[in-house]
Amino acid sequence: MKIIYIPIEIKARELISKLFFIADNINQDFVFFIGNKLDTRRAASLLGKGIYFYKSINWYDTEHIKSIKKRGNKYISLDEEGGATQSDEKSFQLYLNYRSSLENISLVDRIFTWGDFDFRGWCEKYEDYSSKIFETGSPRFDLWRENIYSQIFKDEIAELKKYSPFFFIPSTFISSYEWLQKEIANEKRMKKNNSKISEEILNKRINARKDSYKNHLEYIKIIKKLSKDFPDHKIIIKPHPTEKVFDWKKNFEESNNYYNVLVDNKYDLTSYIAASECVIFSESTAGIQSIMMGKKAISYNLKNNVTFRNFANKCAPNTSNYKTLLDYLKLKDDPRNNNIYKKIIESRFYMSNETSSKMIMNNIKNLQKNEIELNKLIIKSKLYGTYFWVKDSLKLFLIRIKDSIFSKKTKFKSYSLKMPGGIKRIEIERVFKNLKLINQVNIKKFSKSGYIIYKKNSL
Fold this sequence. Notes:
Elements: E1 2-8, H1 11-24, E2 30-36, H2 37-46, E3 51-54, H3 62-70, E4 74-78, H4 89-99, H5 102-107, E5 110-113, H6 116-125, E6 133-135, H7 139-142, H8 146-152, H9 154-160, E7 166-170, H10 177-193, H11 199-229, E8 234-238, H12 245-249, E9 261-263, H13 269-275, E10 278-281, H14 285-292, E11 297-300, E12 318-319, H15 322-330, H16 338-346, H17 356-364, H18 374-405, H19 413-418, H20 425-434, E13 441-446, E14 450-455
Parallel strand pairs: 1-2, 1-3, 3-4, 4-5, 5-6, 7-8, 7-10, 8-9, 10-11, 11-12
Antiparallel strand pairs: 2-14, 13-14
Helix pairs in contact: 4-6, 9-13, 10-11
């Protein structure tokens, strides 16, 4: 057997689609390791040579790529940031200055793309390495198929239906002034370290960040209006995984006037879309997903908004006028033809009868020639996993003791936002159970947030 290592950085964005990738390929001659970035990096260093399936090849990822490759692993990537939603070809080329480098693409073994748009963009920038680049779509697309999402998310959809009818608003904004200042400082720091970023581009990116914050403030205003204009509807806001829920809640919970506004990120994005009456979005892949799932959706944006990624806004009716939004929401059915918008989406996103998960697997299954012995892998994972579990637990215990002595609290802000609660076994089991595969797989824990998954009777 061979092994694929799958690190998860942002749980809400990546976990379910990557678990479906595993489920869809569980009958292949592979063992799968899935976990947070730390546990997966440890596993890829110690458990055996395999294929490391990462979310990007950022220009600053060079040492990380080298460390994975040094262990004899193959390195493959599918960008999770949605480069295919960039406004146009020029924006995508600028995007690649941040999300890649010539050295990194020379090091990796495969680049997968969401569709023809980003495939052509990658090949244009890295013509000498075009043989490494493949158009496959993303496992995230697989979750947009009704026969799949209706199984995986059936419990969450049923739970959310209790709020019906509701409008769903997925946030992709900068939701606080403090965060805006950090983003501006970060843009300036990246400009200093990356010679390909011009002063003009820096200023435009800063203005885009400022407009993202302005959009956040505008959405607060329209949500308050919608709350009054649709008293019998719930309005559910799902903050982006990197946002603080409090930045939204503080605007509505201070007053009983907005009793029908709910800020919630308990469930996967797909569940909210499936259960909603209409999705209101700005520059979000969630809007594209809504159209592909056959849902009513509308894009609401600031006028003359500075952005690098407005493709999603072209994939649904859009407006900057509240009255137009109001009139659209009052319509019982969407008068527009979703098929028109689906064609726009399919011009960029690769959609086929075969799942993207299977297409990716078919591409890589002969990439790694090294075989592993499953028995030895399980033994090694138990030994190393126990060691790391004890080490991490002791480290956390000592941090808490130190904090209590010195009356302070260590901040784990970034990790807690991206990986709330870590990865739990029950979350993995739920996906396989809903897909009716739970009796066909073994799930073995490795440390705190890492798991080995393989088909039963493989030993």
